[in-house]
Each structure stands twice: as C-alpha cells, then as structure tokens.
Amino acid sequence: MKISGFTIVRNIRKYHYPLVESIQSILPICDEFIVNVGDSEDDTLKIVQSISSPKIRIIQNAWDMSTGYEVLSRQTNLAMNECKGDWLFYLQADEVIHEDDLAILKGTMARCMAQDSVDVIRLRWLHFYGSYFRYRVDAGWYQKNDRMIRNNGQVESYGDAGGFRRKDGQPLRRKNSLCLLYHYGWVNSEEIMAQRRLNAIQIGFAKKEALSGQEQYRYGDVNQFPVYFGTHPSVMKSIIAQHRFSMQDWDNICRQYWYHPARIFRLRYKTFGRVKERLER
Fold first, then answer.
1. b vs e for 220-236, b when ≥16 Cβ sit within 10 Å of the residue's Cβ?
2. Which domain holds residue 38?
3. DSSP 12
4. Alpha-carbon gap, residue 22 to 91, rounded angstroms
5. Count of domains forming the chain
6. How many CB atoms lie within 10 A of CB 260?
7. Cα-flanking dihedrals φ and ψ of residue 17, to 5°?
8. pTM of the model
9. Helices marked H in the chain — which ranges?
10. What is the arithmetic mean of pLDDT over 102-117?
11. Average pLDDT over residues 242-262
12. Which CATH number does the domain housing residue 60 bear?
C-alpha cells in the first residue's frame, strides 16, 4: 500500500499558515507529498522548497481568482490528480496530524484496502479558536471531514474544497475515524484574521456583509468555548510556545481546573456534545 499526501498553498507567510508543520506531521507515513503552489505575494515557494525531503514534489499553477471560491477545489483536484498512491491524504495548510495517530491512520487505510465499500475516511475536526487551548463545537463549525481518499478516480473536491464527492453523484461511502484533525487556522492575531477575512470576501468565500461595519476582527470572550486539555502535535511546540495569549490562557486553565484528570494526564479529548446555537464572539 502506498500513500500520497497532497495540499494547495498560496500566501502562507502573509496569512501565517503552519504549512511546514502540516506537511511534516503527515510525511512519515507518506510515500510522496504533492504541493500545488499558487502565485503568491510572499516567499511561499521558497518556504516549500526549504522542506528537506525527497518525498515532496512541487507543481505550480496560476490560480484563476475570477472563478471565486471554486478556485480552491479546482486547484485541489489538480494536486490530487498528480498523486500515485493507493490512498490520498489531504491536508489543508492550517491542518496538522498528531504523531500518536500516524500508526492508527495508516492501519485504518491498510484495513480498508480490501473494502471496496469505502471511498473516504473521515477525521474528527478540532477547530482551535483564539487560543491553542480552546475549540469550537457550536453551530456553523463542522465537526468531521473527509481527509483520506481512495485513489480510484471516482472522488473529487468541489466548491470551496472543504469536502469531497463522488463524480457519479452517488453518496460517498465513508468510514469514520476517532482520530483528531488539528485545525489551527483560527489562532492568529486579530490583525491577520482581518486580512484573511478580506481575502475570503475577495474570492467569494465569504460575503461582504461579514464585515458587519468593521474591518477589524474580534475573537471576543474565548472562555465561553470548551477547553482542550490534551497535547498538541510535537511539530507545533515552538509555534504554540510563542503565542502569548495561549500561554496566558493555559496558565488560567491550570489554576481553574487544577483538579481535572484530563489536565493532569494531558488527555487528547474532544467532547461529543454539540452546542446548537452559534456562540457570540
């Protein structure tokens, strides 16, 4: 069994995407990793080229931004079509895999090799928000996503590249994994988040009304969101340690939940409960 990883990237320094950490997190179980690099306003290409691994293959494309948010799925499919593995592992530039899950994920793909009834394998999405120790489970935040795709030519990315579908219109045949997908795209300075929101509006990913009369982004009170007590992928250690607000938040969490077993043992845990309404930020 061979595994291909793939992603699409553009302006990763400008928008503070942890792309290097993302690729490094999954590379140990990949036989190759395809990176589709779009024309950028920063040194994105050099950053990708700096990752020292013979497994990485770079392709370059000019992204047609006039197609709106569908540019993301079109570029994702271009990267996907370059993959030669039996299974294709898709990570977006702000998603990271925990090293303790690598063997589990590889074993799941191996077991599914003989099961023609499985098109994709889903992971539990952990959306960190404002702090590396807070995550969202309220309305509007999808909690599962397809990230391992059988390379049978029947599956494609669509829309804003948030998910996949079968080309014949039939429902995807899914297998759920309990492993976590660490999503870090919403832990940045409010200034960076404001820039990313404007970019999303420009490509049609978000509506102009999302500005709500102000260009500045505000996280609001992060204390209303669930606490993450567990460890993070080791590749993220340096980035998290440099995030001052998260370190302050963790100190407060340790004082408030000094007795909590999940904090003491740093259990990698995500609640199965959902908040049906959207929480204010």
1. eebeebbbbbbebbebb
2. 1-281
3. T
4. 7
5. 1
6. 14
7. -85, 135
8. 0.95
9. 19-26, 44-49, 70-81, 102-112, 190-202, 237-241, 244-256, 261-264
10. 94
11. 97
12. 3.90.550.10
